[in-house]
Specification:
The chain has about 150 residues and is mainly alpha-helical. It contains five helices and no strands.
Length: about 150
Amino acid sequence: MTDTTRMRLLKIVLRVWGVASIAIFGFIFIGYAMHANAFRPGAGMHWAVWDDLPGHVAMMLAAIYLTWAVFLLLAANRPADYVSFLNFTMWANLVHGLVMVPGAFEHDYHGKFLTDIPWILLLAAAIYVLRPRAEAKPADVAREAVSR
């Protein structure tokens, strides 16, 4: 796969993940801000969260993911300028996903194998495969994009 193709695919992945994350975590943030009963244990949307988190915790986590989503969208415009952010995102999501696996078994949250866990592990894998290579400098990628 050429650098140009990888960058084009990475931009698409980052935009899709960014927009989807804003939709998902925006919904969760608003739900918790409004104290929606739908997220409480036994309610219809409880599968979307890990547990009945106390007070500010769920909103804080959703706010972090919303911020991360905005940066995914920013990185989609110029991935080569966001290599450190992409590397951090890749490793943080890989570690987070691996830590979630035993927790999903231990706490009987098997639904997380269809939601949270693949969501973050797929992002980590996509970034690993598509991220700018260390030898590709931002100017080189830009020059290649202009030449096509």
